[in-house]
Amino acid sequence: MTSITGDLQRIKDDFSEQLRGADSSEELQTVKVAFLGKKSALTSLLKRLGSLPADERPAAGEAVNSLRDSIEAAILEKKAAIEEEESAADELKNLVDVTLPARGRGWGGIHPVAQLTQDVVEILAGIGFSVALGPEIEDDFHNFEALNIPASHPARDMQDTFYFPDGHLLRTHTSPVQVRAMLKHGAPIRIVCPGKVYRRDSDPTHSPMFHQLEGLLVEKDISVADMKGCLEVLMEGIFSRPLKSRYRASYFPFTEPSLELDIECVECSGRNPSCRICKGTGWLEVAGMGMVHPNVLRNGGIDPAVYNGFAWGLGLDRIAMLKYRLTDLRVLFEGNVPYLLSGRV
Ligand code: DAH
User: Would you list the domain boundaries of the chain?
Assistant: First the structure.
């Protein structure tokens, strides 16, 4: 027995008790530092060995080292046990319950302009129209010249039209599709052309890209009455009820005569002098139209002495706003999915 036997026993008992109480990696680390660290009782015992009588030193040294070894081994063993427990707990926390029902994705919806386009195409298909599409990057001939738009026309101005350096441009209206379709298919022809158009315009009521819908019918002996009948079918189809309409004389280079169509205000039917939609006029401008100018027919390869017809153009965004009662044009272009899915459109 050496004189440090009592100290060793105390350290051993102390350690056993603290080890039992350590339940986490952090607690175990604290115990490790307390019993094996530089300031531990065991380390100071080691330092004291030199002051023991020479015959006691070997046995005492061995006893200290053996306790140190067994403390190290016990800590390692406990460490493995704690780590196993902790990773099992972690696994449990991240466990995926495959029996839970999947989270819903919502129903989604069709964009108002896409919906309106589909509706219009369907209405017009019912009276013999087919869809024709054209390029959004156009040339001067199709966008302007063939449509009888003179070189001095303001639409040709850099202020209104997006030009490419090579003279091509972003189409400013869907009317060029008229010319392309006539050149491709000849007469008789009934087409509807929905699509994107571009103008240098951007404020709360104008977007630099917006949507138009063009219509063209060229046959024999077509009159303004045929045109009015066709537009009536279209408007009644869009708003799902008969609406009063009126035509005003207008001017477009590609039609003669040219007219503009107003429909009765879909909000107040003319009964509210302070209506924010029609500004109290009772009328809403919805489309430009006219009998196709003979020059346009000629540019489309059609003989105006044999065929005639009518054309119209309307803004799909504005009509979508009226139909779905939107107050801000921008919601149609911002791609705000929660808003579009909210059912408010
Ligand atoms: N292209 C015209 C515009 O963008 C709209 C238009 C008016 C088209 C009369 C037509 C038409 O076909 O006959 O303002």
Answer: 2-93, 112-340
Give the whole-angstrom CA distance, residue 315 versus residue 201.
15
Residue whose tokens read 């408010």: 344
Q: Between vectors from CA 227 to CA 222 and to CA 233, what angle results, nearest 5°?
A: 130
Mean pLDDT (whole number) for 38-62: 87
pTM: 0.70
Give the distance (Å) from ligand 1 centre to CA of residue 211: 12
Separation of CA 23 and ligand 1 centre (Å)? 81
Residue 103 CA to ligand 1 centre (angstroms): 48
The share of the chain scoring above pLDDT 70, in percent, equals 96
The third-level CATH classification (topology) of the domain covering 112-340 is BirA Bifunctional Protein; domain 2 (3.30.930)
For residue 63, give the nearest of 140, 6, 128, 139 by alpha carbon.
6
What distance in angstroms lies between residue 274's CA and the mean position of ligand 1's atoms? 30
| 216 Cα to the center of ligand 1, angstroms | 11
Out of 34-48, 197-211, 296-310, give the one with best mean pLDDT: 296-310
Pocket test for ligand 1, best of 160, 172, 175 (most atoms within 8 A of CB): 175
Which protein residue's CA is at the shortest distance from atom 5 of ligand 1? Answer: 313
Task: List C-alpha distances in Å: 75 to 9, 63, 152, 181, 289.
Answer: 18, 18, 93, 87, 91
pLDDT at 1: 47
DSSP 164: -
pLDDT confidence bin for 50, thresholds 50/70/90: confident
Q: Report which ligand 1 atom has the smallest distance to the Cα of 314.
A: 5
